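ok, trying the design again with the full structure, not the truncated one.
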């Protein structure tokens, strides 16, 4: 058990902090890179082998596209998704994955403006959501916002971060339903896998940052995700309606289990076997629904799995993304180019092993 009594402690959790994260003091500490264990890839070797010159060039072009696209108020999103807090938070995470921190590095200013925008939309209830444009649901937007802000907490000395993060975490805990999951609205109603993984990752990032997260909240979320698994190893969308397995939701479910600390659950191995069928293949233009969303989670699942699963998956999705990149450095999907570009950047920069939430 860890010192907060929140999540089960393991050798992986003990290696969960990045080179800049000092949760209680916001100070800099020495670089803490995970030590490779049996079946895992060493992060230093992984980055050197997998971040090819072409990948680095694609990443720099995409980061420049996002930086130039940021609105004056610090937000991201286009069309009906303009100012969406989930899209804005994902763009902020993409900048953090490059190694910049609040106020520091090539994209420190952009990160500061994302923080400003999200904090400006933190309501008294704790909910962080913009009222303009369309959304996939307030709790969806809220979860990504909390994830980003929690990653920034400890890198920044801004006092309002902890206060607003604490209220945001309390809202997540209070909105968990009896099944152990979350749905679009901040209340105890139905639940689905997509929103549930959003909240689990937000809670894990908050816990990493030194905020209290009840252990029972995490335990119940693990129970919910496990019950959502189908016999084929994939995951259904909602327990209340059942349904077939799909790539994107199954990848998300696995990340929820890993993030919650259920590293050795048998459901994970079954889920990884299911996901393996969706590994990108050169010359095969698959058109999975929610392509960027699915690969955002799938690459995290394979990163957690390590070993052969990771070393096969990352080059495949990397090369697939490079082919899909547009001349201006962006990617696009049905939501907006800022969302797709941010998710693609997070995927491509994962071997950097920078953020605590993405570290083994």
């Amino acid at each position: 058990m860890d010192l907060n009594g929140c999540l089960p402690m393991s050798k992986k959790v003990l290696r969960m902090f990045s080179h800049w994260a000092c949760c209680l003091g916001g100070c800099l500490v020495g670089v803490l890179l995970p030590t490779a264990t049996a079946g895992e890839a060493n992060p230093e070797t992984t980055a050197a082998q997998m971040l090819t010159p072409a990948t680095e060039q694609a990443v720099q072009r995409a980061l420049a596209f996002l930086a130039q696209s940021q609105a004056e108020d610090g937000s991201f999103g286009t069309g009906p998704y303009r100012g969406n807090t989930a899209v804005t938070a994902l763009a902020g995470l993409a900048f953090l994955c490059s190694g910049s921190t609040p106020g520091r590095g090539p994209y420190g200013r952009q990160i500061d403006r994302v923080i400003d925008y999200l904090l400006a939309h933190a309501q008294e209830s704790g909910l962080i959501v913009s009222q303009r444009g369309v959304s996939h649901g307030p709790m969806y937007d809220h979860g990504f916002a909390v994830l980003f802000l929690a990653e920034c907490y400890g890198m920044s000395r801004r006092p309002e971060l902890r206060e607003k993060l604490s209220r945001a975490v309390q809202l997540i805990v209070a909105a968990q339903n009896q099944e152990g999951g979350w749905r679009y609205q901040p209340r105890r109603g139905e639940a689905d896998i997509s929103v549930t993984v959003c909240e689990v990752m937000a809670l894990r990032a908050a816990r990493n940052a030194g905020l209290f997260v009840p252990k029972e909240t995490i335990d119940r979320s693990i129970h919910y995700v496990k019950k959502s698994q189908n016999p084929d190893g994939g995951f259904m969308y909602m327990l209340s309606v059942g349904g077939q397995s799909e790539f994107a939701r199954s990848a998300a479910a696995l990340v929820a289990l890993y993030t919650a600390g259920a590293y050795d659950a048998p459901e994970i191995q079954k889920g990884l076997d299911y996901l393996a069928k969706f590994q990108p293949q050169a010359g095969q233009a698959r058109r999975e629904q929610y392509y960027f969303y699915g690969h955002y989670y799938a690459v995290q699942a394979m990163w957690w799995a390590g070993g052969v699963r990771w070393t096969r998956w990352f080059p495949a999705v990397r090369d697939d993304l490079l082919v899909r990149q547009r001349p201006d450095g962006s990617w696009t999907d049905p939501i907006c180019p800022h969302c797709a570009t941010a998710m693609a950047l997070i995927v491509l920069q994962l071997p950097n092993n920078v953020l605590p939430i993405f570290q083994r």
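Keeping the full-length input from now on. Residues 248 and 291 are 7 Å apart (CA to CA).
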